[in-house]
Amino acid sequence: MVKASSIWSRLDVLLIAIAAIHVFLAPYTKVEESFNVQAMHDILYHHRHLEKYDHFEYPGVVPRTFIGAFAVSLLASPFVAVIKASKLPKLYGLLIVRLVLGSIVLASLHHFRMQVRRKFGEQISCFFAIMTALQFHLLFYCTRPLPNIFSLAIVIMAYAFWINGQQFATLNCLVFATIVFRCDTVLLLGPIGLQLLLTRQITLWDAIRCCAVTSLLSIGFTVFVDSIMWKRFLWPEMEVLWFNSVLNRSSEWGVFPVHWYFTSALPRSLLVAFPLCFVGIIFERRMQQYVLPILAFIVLYSKLPHKELRFIISAIPMLNLSAAVAATRIWNNRRKSFWKWAYIAMIGSLLASLGFSITMSVASYANYPAGYALNALHNKDLHPNTSYTRVVHIDTYAAMNGISRFCEKEFPWRYSKEEDLSFEEIIGRNFTYLITEHQRIPSFQCLLAISGFSRPTIQLSFPPVVLITQPKVFVHGNIHSKVVKEMKWLGCPSQRRL
Fold first, then answer.
1. Among 119, 34, 246, 166, which Cα is nearest to 174's?
2. pTM value > 0.85
3. Which one of 12, 146, 462, 474 has the lowest number of neighbouring Cβ atoms within 10 Å?
4. At 413, phi and psi to the nearest 5?
5. What is the pLDDT of residue 485?
């Protein structure tokens, strides 16, 4: 008979393996991750030479903190040193920092599950891991250097302290995450803090004193670090708060209806756990004190016009816990007449969740076409004559869909990311290559095209879902360049299926 501890450790390995598969399957990053990706690159490769850092040239819409990038870079630096010594491509460094970030988040998740195991039992902790493993978004995003994910690691620790009855540690984590990484975490801090007050687990005075001290220390920490890195007096999350809440500029990136999180984001991210998380509240009354503040957090966030799944990703672990409670009850009663049908429905839903997650994983592979385009260009242009400098212009679309400084190579390669250049300006700059969303550009020939995910389509045969791709990014070569003339290129293929 397999020991419970053995099952527990295997589930840990399963979660780690799935997160690592996502890293290697889709190694590149998008524009939302660009600040922390470029910051980690610059910390690891430029060290104290701030004049070479990317954020001075491309500061982004709002400033972000360097604290998360420093933490990951510190842990990744021994591995990156080996990569440098071995003269391996910097892309390996991107894999390392993503794996390190994923390890931090999964370590927090492991600590949370240890507390779940202690308070709710072995079965619930196992079903929690199974629910998480069958979902796509949490394990996919846990390695992506978004401010939301740095905050997620700390929020999960807050959940662990919350379940363990460590109220002050819970508040400290949430306050730190709010002030340093994501100011909107205050929408989670409020309901949890209110729940602690209403259940008399903490007094109002103690809560104020705890939050005030942590706030002052956190503000001092982020202002000190980020003022140095940005070369101006700065509290990044205060500027983010001003931009999103006071100026209400976040709506410029799209607006969704108030019910979107409950009717679209949560069903897609939780899958079978979505209905089960509400059932879990009924089966286990102890879950109400944990789930209701999370639902309040989502309701509060729903009032903001601009919505993205990553904004509420910190709600997923606690909702998965409630779903695990329901799944455990169904499993334990599966031999009874009524429960048998619920058990069959749950197993079918778990398999459907697995199929959906696999489909999403395959789609994610084709969602970073510019990264694959630059890598293909590097692999194709192996011309022995290095006296010709290869100047690659990367347009805005390509820069947003897979290309970062980790993708670049040393001499004879040079890169330009100037924005809003007209075709006339591009021709006048004498670029060797272009990586762009445009299929035709005067004075350049299309050398190859990289397809990206377009849409899914359903068919009656197997597989039931087919992912349609179409050319998204094109690599063009200057018709006057000797390097381009002396090599054979693939050309530009038409639409094809994955």
1. 166
2. yes
3. 462
4. -90, 135
5. 75
